Structures are given as structure tokens and as C-alpha cells.
Amino acid sequence: MATAVQRAHPQVIQQSKFFSGSAIVWHIASCVLVLQLLTANRYGYFGDEMYHMACGEHLAWGYVDQPPLIAVFAWLTRHLFGTSVFAIRLFPALASFTLVWLTGLLARELGGGRFAQALAALCSACAGVYLILGHLFTMNVFEPLLWMGCAYVVIRIVKTGNQKLWLWFGLLAGIGLENKYSMAVFGFAIVVGLLLTPERKAFASPWIWVAGAIAFLIFLPNLLWNFEHHFPFLELMRNIKASGRDMAFTPLGYIRAQILLMTPVTILVWLAGALYFFSQAGKPFRVLGWAFLTVLVVFIVAHGKDYYASPAYPMMFAGGAIAWEQISQRRGLRWVRPALVALILAGTVALLPLFLPVLSPEAYLRYQAALPFNIQPDEKSMLQEPMPHYYSDCFGWEEMVQAVAKAYASVPEEERADTAIFANNFAEAGAVDIIGPKYGLPKVISGHQSYWLWGPRNYSGQTAIIVGQTAEQAREWFNEVTIVAELHNPYAPPWENRPVLLCRKPKSPQPLSELWPKVKHWD
Predict the structure, then answer these.
(1) H or E element at residue 484
(2) Residue 34 has what pLDDT?
(3) If I label 93, which of 44, 230, 260, 485 is the partner at 20 to 30 A Cα–Cα?
């Protein structure tokens, strides 16, 4: 029954619901969703996206470089939305929305009021790395949801003392392992946090052990797949380490990269969050503080890529937002709230072209040249790219596939059925597979990553169209090599501007099926 005040002032009640903490979080999350959708097809396909879509056509319990969950999302995308650039970025956009909402929820569960919930959500919405990941169809966009879902469960366990909730942690952790193996790092970090706080009492309960068993059982099919295939992911990691492919960060350099990735102005919040969990006010949830520090230390010591630690930051945003809410409640400090929000928004707008393709390529290059700092890539080869890899690798694919189609059409009709299209890497292969059908091209073959597992598709190897290699490299395999088309996209990575080659008369008398082990290329 409505109270007299509610009956007398229904507009006040409606307005208060619209501006509640939960409502503001939803407004912020909705803005992020709209922004992601508006920029979804600003540039073209990203190389990794096309590879993931190809994996969705070869559903399995594992792949050379990833667990199977992203392939499931790829299968769903293809059958629900199609394979356009916009279509494959719908799930990432929805994941961006969910992460902002989840960050606000974390703040609320930690005891934050309206301002804390809104500030935490705003920081998550403005963090550059989440804007980048929310724009691309990769497993990385789903990783923060699974980590922070586990963090939410931990908060609920601390608040209620209900140890049975560990079962939900086990479920989410198991799904997380099927998304990306680094879920194990966060699980380890939570264990460290438990051992260093009074919450270690969880180990005296059977539920946390049952949760571990649940996570293991969910992960088991992928583990068995790896065992059956001789652990290709470990072989891949050894190859990467031996090649020195990745950029090495010093500890200070890694922290500096975190500041840029999270958008520099948000350090005021996430650093406050790290301090909050070690203060008296945040003591009940200190397990999350230790978990965050453990994640950072693990990736610094292991020389992980700079974005590997990013899934842990939403809980720091939640804690830091509560700290700022408490500070700004003091007399004379209410001005801190609008000032902090304005600073975060201004800092994000200034750097937005770094995180989302809001500018044309030409305008972006001018913007990049005017920046007072350099952007350090994750891999040494990316130093040659004119733009950050997540932008540069979105260009040149349509032109490349058109050139492949031209080469394929030049082959006499009686030869085409046995003419293999061979791509040097999974991005080129994925481009032919996802764009090629409209040009009448068959499925591609490649020795790179999981494409090697899918084999040579019964081609003899007598005639091949090769993309991603130089003519000199192709002549190591073929006696007759013809350059069909030159590629010159100014924004694409230089290795994607290699010519399209038509190759005949292989030097080896062996059929391609016997030569296949030699084309294996895992790096």
C-alpha cells in the first residue's frame, strides 16, 4: 500500500528511482554500449577476430593457443548475427555493458552508496583497456567478467559467512579456465589472499575444496584435449620465449603501462582502492587487496603482456570509489565529487582516440604524432606498425582477399579444384575464410596455430596461391613463382603488405600431406 507521501509526490519517487545508484550505473553502462556499437565497424575486421570465427567452424575442446569458449561464442555469433564486422562485435559490446554494471555492483556489495557505485562504474567505463577490448571479438573481453564474478562471490562469502557460495566460485572459475588459462592466476591470487587474512578459515570447510573440484571438472575436457595433442599451448609458449617475440617490461615499466591502459586519470581511484583494502575500513575484504597485488607480481615476474593484469582492476575501482565517497562526505569536501567526475571524463575524452576508432586513420595518425608520449607495443614486430596493433591489424584485408580472388580466377578452371590457398598466419587465413566466400574462394590452409591441426584439406600441393610470404621465401618450396598482385595499404602491418603469389612446380616430389609437418608454425 502506498504511503501518504508516495501518493502526494509520485514524481519524487519516480525521480529518485531514476537517479538511484543502480540506475546511474545502468545509465553509464548503456552509454558505453552505445559508444561501442557506434564505433563497431568504423575500421575493418581485426586479425584475431577472423581466426576466432574460423575456430567456431571447427568446434573442439581446445585449440593450439586458447581454450574453447571463444569458439563457442564464434559459433553463436555466426548463427545468430552473421559474420559482418558489426555482427561479430555485438557480444563484446554487451560484455562491455556487463562489466560496467558489475563494477557498480561490486561497489554496492562492498557498502558503497550512490556516488561510490556511480564512480566505480564510470572508471570502468572510462578505462582505456576495457574500451579497446570491448571493441574486439577476443577472449580478453570476457575475462574481466569471469574474474570479477569470482570476486563478487568472495565478497558475498565474507559478508554472509555462507561457505556454500564457493560452489559458485568454482563454477565461474571453471568457465574462466575454458575461456583463458590466466584464470588460474586469479584463482591463485585469491588463495594467497585467503591465506594472508582471517578468511583462511574457508580451508577448514569442505565447500572450497568441492569448488576446486567443480572448476577442475569443467576444465577437464580441455586438459584431456591438450594431453591428446601433446600440450600444444606449452609448445607455443616455449616457442614464443625462445624467439624473444614479446617486449620485456621492467617492473616500473609494467606499472607505467598499467597507468596508461587504465586511462591515467583513473589512477586516483584504483590506487585509492588498493589502499582502501589495506585500511581499517576495508579490512573485512582485504583478501581482494592481496589478490590484486598478487596478480601484479605474478605478471611482472613472468614478463606477461601489459594488459594481462587488467581484469583485476574493477574491484580496485569499487574499493577506491568507496574511499572517495567517504572522503567527500567530510565537511567542506563535497566539491571533490563533481571535480573528480569532471577530471575523469576530461582525461578520457582527451585520450579516447587511443582506445576507440573515433577518428579517421589519417586524423588518428596526426593525433598520435601530437601525443607527448610513445605507445609501447606488446611485441617487437609491432614497432614497425604505423598505428597500435589493435588498429593497424584492421586494415588491408579486403584488398588482400580481392587479390587472392584475382589470382584464383587466373588459374585454368581444370586446375582450380587442386589449387590451395596457403596463408602464412592465422589472420590472413581467417580473412580468406570470412571474406573469401563472396568472391567464390574455397577454404584456406595454413601452418599457423590451429590451422595446422586442420590439415591440408586433400590438396596435392602442385599449385598454390600464397599470401604473407615474399617471393624469395616461396621459391624455397616452388620452382615457378609469379607475383599476381602487390599490396600497399599504408595503415596495415608491413608483413600484411607482402605480394600475393601464384606458385607451381613444387621442388619436393612428396605430396602436401607428407610435407605438412614441415609447415607447422606455432609462435
Answers:
(1) strand 478-485
(2) 98
(3) 260
pLDDT of residue 367: 96
In terms of pTM, does the model score above 0.90?
A: yes
498 residue type, one letter: R
pLDDT in tens, 32-82: 999 999 999 999 999 999 999 999 999 999 999 999 999 999 999 999 999
The DSSP call for residue 479 is: E
Would you tell me how many other CB atoms lie within 10 Å of the CB of residue 281? 14
Q: What are the Cα distances from residue 507, in Å, to 207, 422, 447, 471, 515?
A: 62, 16, 18, 15, 11
Taking the C-alpha atoms of residue 53 and residue 84, their distance in angstroms, rounded to an integer, is 11
- Please check whether residue 122 is in contact with residue 103, taking contact to mean a CB–CB distance below 8 angstroms: no
Q: Give the number of other CB atoms < 10 A from CB of residue 361.
A: 18
Residue entry with cell 528511482: 17
Which pLDDT does position 12 carry in this prediction? 47
**Which alpha helices (H) appear in 200-358, and where do they start and end?**
206-228, 232-243, 251-261, 267-276, 286-301, 313-328, 336-355
- In angstroms, the CA 192 to CA 299 distance is 15
Using alpha carbons, select from 71, 73, 75 the residue that is nearest to residue 222.
71
- Give mean pLDDT, residues 136-150: 98
CA angle 254, 43, 308 (to 5 degrees): 20
Smallest CA-to-CA distance from 386 within 501, 488, 254 is with 488
Over its C-alpha atoms, the chain yields an Rg (Å, rounded) of: 25
**DSSP per-residue string spanning 138-178:** SGGGTHHHHHHHHHHHHHHHHHH--GGGHHHHHHHHHHHHH
Per-residue cell: 386: 604505423
Sign of the CA dihedral running 445, 447, 451, 457: positive
d(CA 292, CA 275) in angstroms, rounded, equals 11
Give me 378's grid cell.
Answer: 606488446
User: What number is the average pLDDT over the span 105-110?
Assistant: 98
Centre a 10 Å sphere on the Cβ of residue 472 and count the other Cβ atoms it contains: 8
Nearest to 357 by CA among 397, 386, 388, 399: 388
What's the pLDDT tens digit per position in 165-195?
999 999 999 999 999 999 999 999 999 999 9
